[in-house]
DNA sequence: AATACATATGAATAAATGATCATATATAGT
DNA sequence: ACTATATATGATCATTTATTCATATGTATT
């Protein structure tokens, strides 16, 4: 019984990657950033205004999300515009949001 | 600009719930448990065998998942069988797994 | 009732995490 | 060159988290 199941074990690599992505989504600040960037591109300053948080905290989280390629950035002069960079994650975010809102 | 965006702000309640669910999925052990329970019902002992982890650690995580109604349990004598209890989360797990496996 | 087995639980500990502070870097305007 | 603005970064600190250990609870068997 256990033998059969063990063979079907998910690879450590796969779990790690999965966990990494879900962990990224498992924080209120990062979720707010993602939500704010749905359908829009915004500079750090604007994100800070919307979230009403410190610039540093937001910047740190943006880097976190960028490392996972969940967001990408575009520099124009001294301002940096962030936008979502992973349609699939975007899709799962929206899906889960529906899940939470209704049933 | 910021005014308009702030109005579209996601509610604190919604973010909290979202974060709670994603956080639950953001841990390797819990992901392995969920994966193991896909399409099956298993007792704690078997899960412990498959994950090759301490019984206590598994039990703690099962409680965690149960509190969020991600898994449910069924008692038969002295053994307790666990199974998945949220189709939507199950669906998102599978979706994300595909995402990670392929592109 | 005594023992064995299955699961749960509380406390303790080490590691990870997120915000903040201070400061650095980069670009623009004067 | 100087100043202002936008963003990034490193260190620190408090909190959270996951595992382990020891032990408790619950059930079956003899």
From TrEMBL, chains A, B:
Pfam families on file: HTH_5
Keyword Membrane: no
Entry annotated with the keyword Transcription regulation: yes
CDD domains reported in the protein's UniProt record: HTH_ARSR
MF annotations from Gene Ontology: DNA binding; DNA-binding transcription factor activity
Keywords for this protein: DNA-binding, Transcription, Transcription regulation
Domain HTH arsR-type, chain residue ranges per copy: 10-103
Protein name: Helix-turn-helix transcriptional regulator
Organism whose genome encodes this protein: Paenibacillus sedimenti
């Amino acid at each position: 019984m256990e033998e059969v199941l063990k063979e079907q074990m998910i690879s450590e690599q796969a779990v790690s990657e999965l966990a990494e992505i879900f962990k990224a989504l498992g924080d209120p600040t990062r979720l707010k950033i993602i939500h704010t960037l749905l359908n829009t591109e915004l500079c750090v300053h604007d994100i800070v205004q919307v979230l009403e948080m410190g610039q540093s905290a937001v910047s740190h989280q943006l880097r976190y999300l960028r490392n996972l390629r969940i967001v990408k950035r575009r520099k124009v002069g001294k301002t940096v515009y962030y936008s979502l960079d992973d349609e699939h994650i975007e899709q799962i975010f929206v899906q889960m949001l529906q899940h939470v809102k209704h049933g």
